[in-house]
Structures are given as structure tokens and as C-alpha cells.
């Protein structure tokens, strides 16, 4: 094969390979081109042979394909024939229709006037049918309206009546048959807003407290959908448009809208906020929104009055009592419950008002954007805000409280409370100074016009004018509207104690909204200018009644009261009365914590006046006659040295409540106790037995009743001071607060440091007076021993006949006196204090009798027996009193029995056994022996005295060794 043939082969092969793909025309063009380009015949023959061969192969292949796909080819041919036939038939039909249309066009051209007339008749019939349909809908308006209103679907009802009236005044204006129906529907529309306003008022004031939480805008979707004013909506939702504000801006550019929807298948009252929005939208659609706002504003006073009356009735029903009879009973707890219910309802009312005002605000801001659909804009004097609501609520509460607190009667009998406790505390020691202070002029206790806190005439008139203005202000607020308040408890100023805390919490809520509260001003004025004075007057009256008269400090409480108080011994009725009054003031501090300082100041004034009363009564007991002399025990009690020594004794320390233990003899041995008792006896003897004169009767307390009074005063003031001490410890001074500390764990607020210091000073003065009373009794019993025993040695005869062996009359008087005091103190003092008074009394009696040997002129054997009988009588009596054997009196008896021996025998016994008495006691014994038995020269007495000294010195040296 030549190169040209080889070069053509690929193209030919390519051509053959593509024969099944290329079209027949392209293939023929390729063959023609190949034959035309061949130069010789041979080449053309070869090409022809190749083409014929290819043709035969194609024909063979086509035959095979036809044989293999005969059925498909047959179906295709049939379908092609059917399509060809359908196309031919359609062409014929189109041709015929075209001819028919041309014919119709020609015919209609000749009938056009008749057709125009028929079209006009059809339009008229269609309009008549539409009007008939509207008339049928208008006839059903009243029935649907009643159904909607009964189900409280006010938005549907409002839309329906507005659309119906608009239709009757528009498209159906000329229908005379609907004239009566039109009049009825217009009247319904005009009265519709009254129903809406009443429903609004009911939702705000009369609806019971909700048990569900309000979901703000729970059925409101953000969108802007224009509803056709004339279109009837028979679906489930009736959309309305309301503006939604961003913040408090009123610019129309910042107003968006949301839909208020009313679901006919649910109760509209289930969602309060949506229901209020529906009512507001309904008023807005009726162009009666300004009327609704004004009506709610004007009816606020009466509605709140009705709400309070309803709450009062609910409290009466829950208590199970008749409302008319409750006013005669002091039951402040029902007033507290009433106020709590009113507060809860007031919060609900204010919240509902706020929801309504939010809707009004959103609607009124759309006036400029859509003036025609918004109706009449609200005027500034018609619109109100939430502060107006709270102001009216406070005004109603102020009137209510003025009735329950009995403000008028309280002010008519008002008392001025003390303004401060600024007087310095008086030192109690001045009552016991040697120079008697000038006797104060006796005036009534708690007479305020004589105190430093009394108000001037001008300030009193000013306060009267203030409260007259207050009453006139209350009349202006609503007392003149004939609001009849039926009360659940008896009006009284002290009702403030039961309601102050919840009232204060409510006022704090109001102040968060309004910054200031008129109700707070009312309560402050009432408490400061009326209640505090009345409290002080009541307390003063009670204490004045308890402390009035000479026997005021002698009256004690009965047994029942003592058991109730849990005290071991009787207390003064005046002290219990004062304590009860203090407790009332303490309760008031807790009830009215904001005025704790004022009540504490009042407590201090009460305590100061009662302290003066007690001191005055004490002075009347311890002083005698009109001179400046006082009883001996009183002077000793106020003596610093004696008082300090007595307070240092273990027996005194055991009485202190914080130590509270009886005397522990393991800590203080009998020898130490004897030494202390000896020191006490020496001090008392040195003050009373150094003089030859006797103690005057006017210098001791001879009336046991007065001693009982002193004992009662001690027990009462000690009990009273301990209770006051606990109270003072429970208070927190302002100085103890940290700079950043605002709240305390205690219920009471911090107290003024000055007032608290005054209280603690008064408590200490009561404690001091109570201790002085106990020291007085301790010393008075001992002075009585001196009073009766000193004459035994100084006035009695111990050198008499044998038949004069009975105890001395003074000893019998002493025993009788001690028995009387023992009986009195057993009833009036606690056992440990009784023990303190009579403990170591035997040692003192023995010391007095031993020391009295110097006052005996002579003594014989009969006199010795008589003296021993005196000692035995006293010992038996003291044993009955103390229930312990008074061994110290055995010492005195042994001392006088030494007179049975001569001095030499006594000296020998001292030399052998050691001294049992002091050197001075032995010396007086030897002197008495020499006075009693004549014939002993002075030299013998001096020799015995000298021997006594040597024996005593020897005994002391042996003891030291």
C-alpha cells in the first residue's frame, strides 16, 4: 500500500467508525468529496468497492436490527401513522372553528345593543343579592352581640357593632326598612362603652386575687396587619392593631405594632393582660377611650372604698363573728389581717391599672400616625398615671387608719412625750450624806407640765393647729364623701402596734415607686405627736396609781401573781406595776422599731421617777423626826469603810448572782471565818460600846413593818434590776456598729449611746439601793443586839439575892425582837439572804456580852448564874432561828463561868492549857473580880495583871515556836 493510501486509511476508518453516528447527508458529502479528489480510475474503483462493501455490511446490520426490533418498529410506525392522522383531523377542525368564529363575529356585530342591556341587568341583580346578604347579616348582629358579650368576647362584639353601624350609615343608608334596626344598633354602640368601662372596673377592683401569674403579652404576636374596617370576620381570631413602644419614647418613628387577638374558644379572662388590652382596644375602636380613662379616674375613690368594705366583710366572715359586734371588742389581729388583705389587693389594683395605662399609652401615641382611626386624643387633665393610683390608695388607707387609730379622740386627749433623757443621773450616796438635802416639794409622779420636757404654750398651740389642719386634710381626702367604715375591731391608738410592721413594709414599696409617701407622713405625725404622748400618759397613770399614797411601797403582790412571775418571795406591787409598764414599752420598741429610741427614753424617765420615789421612801424609813439624824444602821451602810468591808466578806460575795454559790468552807476555813467575824464584831463594838451612854430608841427601827418594807424593797429592786440588766444587754449601741454595717441580726435598730448609758446608770442605781437595803437589814439586826444587850451590863444588878435568877428583861426583849424579825424575814427574804443576815450573829452576841464585862460594877455567884441564863436563853433562840448550834455563845458562857474561880486559878489554867480569850478580856475579868470581892489590895491586882502579861507572852512565844 502506498503512503497516500496509508494516509487516507485513518480518515476512512474514522469515517467508517462514525457512519453510525453521522447523518446520511454528511456521509454522502464525504463520499462525493473523496471521489472528486481521486486522480485515477483505479482509485475511484477501490473507493466504490469499499463503499459497496460498507453498504452491504450496513444493510446486513440493518436487517439484523430490524429483525431483532421488529415489534418496536411496528409499534413506532403505527404510532406515527396515528399522529399523522390526528394532526390532519385537528387542522380540519381548526379551519372549521375559524370559519364559525368569523360567522359569529358577523352575527354579534348586528346584536350588540341587546347584549349590553342584558349585562347591565346582571350587574344590578348582583348588587341586589349583595345588599340582601348584608341585610341578613345586619339582622343577626344583635343575637351575635348578646352571645359575644355573654362570653366576654368584647373585641368581636365591638368590631361587629362598629362595622354594622358603619354599613347602615354607608351602603345601607337609604334602606328605610332598616331604619328602626339602625336606631337600635346605634343606641347599642353608644352604650357599649359603658359595658366596657364597667368590665374594666370589675377587672381592676372586683376580681378576686389571681391564682395565676400574668404572662405579659402571651397572646400577642409582633406584626403589622391591616384589617379591613368593613370586612366581616367569622373566624376564630379578630386581629386589632395597637402601637408598641420602645422604652418611654413617644416618637412615631419608634412605634411598632402587635396584634391583640381574641380566641373565641377560650375564656378571655384567663389572661388578664390580654383581656385588659382587648377592653382598651374595644374602647379605642368605639372612640370612647378618653371617656373610659376619665371614668376610671373619677371612680377610683368610690371603687377603693368599696374594695375596702368588701375586704372588711371577708375578714368578718373568716372570723365567724358578726361585723356589727366586732367594733366593740379589742381585736387588733383582725385589723392586721384586714390591712394585709387590703395591701395585697392594692398591689393587684395598681398592677392592673398599670396594664391599662400601658395600653392607653401605646394607643394614644398612634394619634399622629393614624389620626382618623384613633379617635379623640386624650387631654392632659383626663389622663392619669400610676402615681395617681398610689396616691389615692394612700388617701383611702389614711382615712381608714384614722378611724381605727381613733385619731380625733387621741388628739383631743394627747399628752406630750418626753423629748430626751438629758438630766444627769443623781448619785445615790447623796441620800445618805450627813447633811440632809433640802426636802423636795411633793408633786405628783410624772406630772409633765412640771418637767423639763414640757412644751411651751406657743408650741402646744402650733401642734393643735397642725392636727386641725390634718383633720381638714382628711376631710378633703374623703371623710366628706360619706364613706361609712364598718370596723373589725375597737378603734384605739394602740392598734398601731399590731399593724406597724406590715404597714411599714407597704410604705417602703410605695416609696420605691413615688419616692415620698403621704401615708408615711401621716403615720409619723400620729406616732410622734399623738401616740407617744398617750403611751406616756397611760404608763404614768398606771405608775401613779401604784405609787400614790403612804402605803404604796408596802403593798405586795398576791400569791397568784407571785406564782405567775415565778419569784420565791413577795414583791412590791408598785415594782411589778412599773416592770409591767416597762415590759409594755419594750414590746412597743419591738412593735415600732423605728421609734425605739423614743420608747427607751420614755423607759429612762419612768425609771428615774420611780427611783426617786424609792429613794424618798427609803429616806422616810431611815431618818427620824424632823432633824437630820438617821438610824445607826443607815449611817453604817453609807459609811465607805464599813460598807467596803461588809461587801468583801465571803458571805456577801456568795449572794452575788454571777457567783451564785453558797460559802465554800473549803476555801474559807472556820478559823478564817472566825477571824472575819471577829473583825466585823470589833468594828461594830468599837463604834457602839466605847461610850457609857446607851443607844437611843429613835436610832433603831422598832417597827417590824418598816423592816418588812425594806426587805420587800430589796427583793423587788434586785429582781427589777436583773430584768432591766438583761434588757440593757440585749440592746445594741450605735457606736458598736461598723462604718459599713447596715443590718443587725437583732430585731431592734441600734440605740443612742447616751440613752443606753443613762439606762445602765439607772440599773446600777437600782442595784445599789437594793444592796443598801440588804446591808441595812444585816446591820439593823446587829444594832438591835447592841440596843438590848448593852443595858444588860450597864443597868442590871448581878450582885442581887438568890431568887433573882431569871434572864434579864432586855434579853427577853431581844429574843422576842429577833423572833419577830426572823418571822418577818423568812416571809420576805430568800433563804440565802436570811442566812446572810443571821449568820455569825451568835459570835457578835458573845463578843458583846464578853465586852460588856467592863460595865458590870459587881457580880456574885447568883449574878454569874443569871448571866449564864441570859446567854443560854439567847443561844436557844438563835439556835431556833439559824437551826445550828451557836457554839460561839458557849465561849461567852465559859468566860463568865471563870468568875467562879479566883484569878490565881484562872491564871494557872491559862498557864497550863493556854489562853482561850484575849489579854484585854482576861484583864477585865480580873478587874471585875476585884470589884466584886472586897479585901483585895491594889497591889495584888497589879501583880495578877503582871503575871497575866507574862503568861500570855509565854503562850504567844510557844505558839510561834
Automatic annotation (TrEMBL):
Q: Where is the composition biased (Polar residues)?
A: 9-21
GO CC terms: exocyst; growth cone membrane; synapse
Task: Reply yes or no: does the keyword Thylakoid apply.
Answer: no
For whether the record's keyword set contains Protein transport, the answer is: yes
Q: Where is the Exocyst complex component Sec8 N-terminal domain?
A: 51-147
- Residues forming the Exocyst complex component Sec8 middle helical bundle domain are 274-463
| Residues covered by region (Disordered) | 1-21
Instruction: Provide a GO biological process annotation.
Output: vesicle tethering involved in exocytosis
Pfam families given in the database record? Sec8_C, Sec8_N
Q: Which UniProt keywords apply?
A: Exocytosis, Protein transport, Transport
What exactly does this protein do? Answer: Component of the exocyst complex involved in the docking of exocytic vesicles with fusion sites on the plasma membrane.
Regarding protein family, the annotation reads: Belongs to the SEC8 family.
Specify the protein name.
Exocyst complex component Sec8
